[in-house]
Amino acid sequence: MIIDTREVQDIHSFYRLESLKEIYGIIGMLLPILILVLGITIGVLLIVWLEREISAGIQQRIGPEYAGPLGILQALADGTKLIFKENLLPARGDGRLFIIGPSIAVISIFVSYSVIPFSSHLVLSDLNIGVFLWIAFSSIVPIGLLMSGYGSNNKYSFLGGLRAAAQSISYEIPLTLCVLSISLLSNSSSTVDIVEAQSKYGFFGWNLWRQPIGFIIFLISSLAECERLPFDLPEAEEELVAGYQTEYSGIKFGLFYVASYLNLLVSSLFVTILYLGGWNILIPSVFFSDLVEINKVGRVFRMTIGIFITLAKTYLFVFISITTRWTLPRLRMDQLLNLGWKFLLPISLGNLLLTTSSQLLSL
């Protein structure tokens, strides 16, 4: 039997080409995810630096200034220190729950960033249920905190986990009702469609003007979901000794703070997307399209401007959250639950009914 060497070489070259295509496909799939993770990490480090600078300014202190210029590397230095610190495990605790809890809290928030559009056509996954996917994954975070509190075998940690679960249930419902009102106004639950629905009339087309009550409820509920002051009952230092974080050290302790700032950033991004027009500027999109020539350079310019506008609006609400933390005192547990169940829930339900009625009358 005679084997043609040319045919063998063609077969080998074909398989090499197919394997290269598979490798390029995997790289093309992972590259956007890596870029998104890198951008989110830089954004979290910036929030940590801003919180220290703003809190220092409010309390008339200096703030970080030695680690890098203006202290911008202080958060990186703290993270490096936590990586090399010893990880302690409670002798009588549940080791599996103790380890899994922080990971669940961080991973569930990271997944929420996949549906956030930072600019036009710049979104990792444009799903028809984008906003409700965020709500679903944000509901998983208290489960991780409850697992951490229970696995620590500490009554203060367990009580902090129970408080986190109660607080999440109390404020998740008003937040979901506000999101449902926005979905009815936009006729879609996709984050991209919600932003594009606000671009027709520019500044006056933002959902902030059509849903002012929902905006206030969403802002309060998102602060409670992030467990920021005045809603940081699950980790209250005075009565719970830091709550579910009490027994943690090293990188696991750092994961809780990463999850907290990740949640703050994603909540501020969703405030921008749902109520402030996302990447849209103050003028209607029709006029802006006429000003910028639609070609490759024009698309890159619009995408860059969109990213800048989205982040500027986002960090405005980060500033509001930081200022609120260092201005208002902590609520009691009964006050927190009364605010959620007796005030925010009925008002958000009434807002949803008004929105539904107006949509039906406009048909």
From TrEMBL:
Name this protein carries in UniProt: NAD(P)H-quinone oxidoreductase subunit 1, chloroplastic
Recorded topology in the membrane: Multi-pass membrane protein
BP terms from Gene Ontology: aerobic respiration; photosynthesis, light reaction
Keywords from the UniProt entry: Chloroplast, Membrane, NAD, NADP, Plastid, Plastoquinone, Quinone, Thylakoid, Translocase, Transmembrane, Transmembrane helix
Transmembrane segments: 23-50, 97-116, 128-147, 261-283, 303-322, 343-361
Keyword Lipoprotein: no
Listed EC numbers: 7.1.1.-
Keyword Transmembrane helix: yes
A GO term, aspect molecular function: quinone binding
Summary of subunit composition and partner proteins: NDH is composed of at least 16 different subunits, 5 of which are encoded in the nucleus.
GO cellular component: chloroplast thylakoid membrane; plasma membrane
Annotated compartments: Cell membrane; Membrane; Plastid, Chloroplast thylakoid membrane
UniProt xrefs under Pfam families: NADHdh (PF00146)
Source species: Miconia dodecandra
